[in-house]
Amino acid sequence: MNLSIIITTYNLPNSLLSTLISIEKQVIPPYEVVIADDGSSIETKEMIFEFQKKTNLKIIHSWQKDIGFRVARSRNKAILNSKGDYIVIVDGDMILHPLFISDHIKNAQKGFFTQGFRVLLGENISKKILMEKKINFLLFFTDIKNIKNAIHSNILSKLFSKKGNHTKGIKSCNMGFFREDFFNVNGFNNKFEGWGREDSELIVRLLNSGILRKDIRFNAIQFHLWHHENIRDTLNINNKILKNSISSHSKWCEDGVQSIKIYEN
């Protein structure tokens, strides 16, 4: 199974570099890395170019114009640029456990999408990581909020990972799905602009199409670098789109991944 990892980013080149370094350290490397760039400036492009020159990873930089927060469209475009049979989405401020990709491969199951969880790093350790550009997982335990999410255990994972059909706690910073399932519902809804709910709305359509949810506990661990929260001034509008998809039992969005031309900005 070819796994493509999609990294969402916007003007955080140091955080993105930490994510890429953690992908280099994976026990099982991905087939490719596609960076879903929502219009970052030249600093991010230069960092990616320098990293590409010294890594064995296949990295694709999928960029679109900066005309506002358009993460749904950015991810759609990146997935169009990908080739993998299985897609894992992460954010560009996440540091991945060395077994992150192998855990997602192990947990991939036809008829399901996977929802992983994250560990919240504190401000001090996050600044230290970004400044030193080094990853030391032992240090992470000195400044951490939800330590149970940092425990990697295959035994506990089998006991506590669950299947269901709900949208509570959906976070696209750690989510996996089969490419075919994603395209069958036309991907993310491009009408979502500004922060929030584009991931939950996608999951509503997947669930309505018969694709169930699988929560991965104590596997597929990622560490979230601290940062200030995004502005949420469009949340009311996005909530309305989500509620409409729920009430109409939607399985498809008109303005989705198939509305995007692969080379357009």
CATH architecture: Alpha-Beta Complex
Major sheet description: 8 strands, mixed
The DSSP helix count reads 10
Helix percent band = 25-40%
> So what's the overall shape?
globular
CATH superfamily: Spore Coat Polysaccharide Biosynthesis Protein SpsA, Chain A
Secondary-structure element pattern, one letter each: EHEHEHEEHEEHHHEEHHEEH
Number of domains: 1
State the strand order across the main sheet: 3-2-1-4-9-6-10-8
Q: Using DSSP, what is the number of strands?
A: 11
Overall radius of gyration: 17 Å
List low-pLDDT spans: none
CATH topology: Spore Coat Polysaccharide Biosynthesis Protein SpsA, Chain A
On the 0-100 scale, what is the average pLDDT?
94
Summarize the structure.
This protein has 265 residues and is of the alpha/beta class. Helix content is 35%, strand content 18%. α1 (13-24) runs parallel beside α2 (42-54) and α9 runs parallel beside α10.
